[in-house]
Design a protein that fits this description.
CATH superfamily of one domain: MurE/MurF, N-terminal domain
CATH topology of one domain: Udp-n-acetylmuramoylalanyl-d-glutamate--2,6- Diaminopimelate Ligase, Chain: A, domain 1
CATH class of one domain: Alpha Beta
CATH architecture of one domain: 3-Layer(aba) Sandwich
Largest sheet: 11 strands, mixed
């Protein structure tokens, strides 16, 4: 069913300033490059786009404060931070994926599990013995919830998610397709000193050889705070003895790997393909760009930012901005890149001079 919202209501929800006809109704949020009809609400917070809308079929827009709105626009809303407005606007027009209310007859709920009366569970899902599902939670089809796992109130679990035994998930979690929460950690040991241990100690593999790998069982679980979002195909491994922990408000992108015993603080952002090795500690409000790698036992200080594809091999102080492999302060990384370019230029010049000298010696 198409949503119809009045511009006055949108202005109130966005905390913006209404201009024009507040009773004008819109049905769809549109990018300026994808306008389909006069009932589109066009995002035009970039002032350079506004002249392009003059005389078009567009009649309603979202603009930045102080923008000169074309005379053909019937209604508009002025906003401050455009992406904050976008967050609120998309929530107004969001269309949640429908799951029939109640518990589908194909769902298996084992003995001792508690499911709150208003919970929705889709077809072919499994709830293990002693698990707890909080009020107003929606579980899509084909979800596995292990024994004694806990899912907090108001959570949204999409299809294919696997939640292991004893995992604890706080209220209002959103977990996307095929995420794995609570698989065993990747933890093994060799009877004799391994090649990795030898390399760390001596700088060489030497004669070491991994003839047998002994598995270390994962006795811990995973503890996830409130208001956490976890992307599709992300894996968070259980701890060896203590639990792997994710703090309140943290947002994790798709295809992220979080190893055993890792601690991630509150309100962090971990972008796609981040990999965090075992026992690393990530502080509060840290941002790790796409494909950042974090070595085991590393500590990253609060409010730090790592640029995409950084390799973090050592501890990072709070409020650092780092990049490169190995990661270093951004200014140092840029300086090193410039020096490398100079070395390349000097090498080219040296080759030219060498050829000239050889030519002169040949003439002699």
């Amino acid at each position: 069913m198409t949503k119809k919202l009045k511009m006055a209501d949108i202005a109130e929800a966005l905390g913006g300033q209404l201009g024009g006809d507040g009773s004008f109704e819109v049905e769809r949020v549109a990018h300026p490059a994808d306008i389909r009809g006069p009932k589109d609400l066009v995002l035009a917070t970039d002032k350079a786009l506004l002249p392009l809308l003059e005389g078009s079929i567009v009649e309603a827009v979202i603009v930045s404060e102080g923008a000169q709105v074309p005379s053909s626009i019937k209604a508009y809303v002025e906003v401050g931070r455009s992406r904050v407005a976008l967050s609120k606007l998309t929530k107004l027009f969001e269309e949640p994926v429908a799951v029939p209310k109640g518990i589908h007859p194909t769902v298996i709920i084992e003995e001792g599990a508690y499911v709150a009366p208003d919970v929705t569970i889709g077809a072919f899902s499994y709830i293990g013995a002693g698990a707890e599902i909080g009020v107003s939670t929606i579980i899509h089809p084909q979800v596995y919830v292990g024994p004694k796992a806990v899912i907090g109130a108001g959570s949204l679990i999409y299809a294919g998610v696997r939640i292991g035994a004893r995992v604890k998930i706080g209220a209002r979690a959103i977990i996307h397709f095929n995420a794995s929460i609570g698989a065993d950690g990747f933890s093994f040991v060799t009877p004799q000193m391994s090649s990795v241990e030898t390399a760390k100690e001596t700088g060489s593999v030497g004669a070491a050889s991994n003839l047998e790998l002994l598995r270390i069982a994962s006795l811990g679980a995973v503890e996830i705070g409130e208001d956490v979002e976890i992307g599709a195909n992300t894996s968070i491994d259980r701890g060896t003895i203590i639990s792997t922990r994710i703090g309140n408000g943290t947002k994790i992108d798709n295809q992220v790997q979080i190893g055993h015993n890792v601690v991630v603080g509150e309100n962090c952002m971990l972008c796609g393909r981040v990999g965090i090795a075992g026992s690393a500690v990530v502080g509060n409000r840290v941002v790790l760009g796409g494909a950042v790698g974090v070595a085991d036992h590393v500590r990253i200080g609060d409010d730090s930012v790592a640029m995409g594809m950084s390799g973090i091999a050592g501890n990072i102080a709070p409020r650092s901005l780092v990049g490169g492999v190995p990661a270093k302060p951004r200014a140092k990384m840029i300086e090193d890149m410039r020096k490398l370019n100079r070395v390349t230029q000097l090498t080219e010049k040296l080759e030219v001079l060498t050829k000239r000298i050889e030519a002169l010696e040949g003439e002699g």
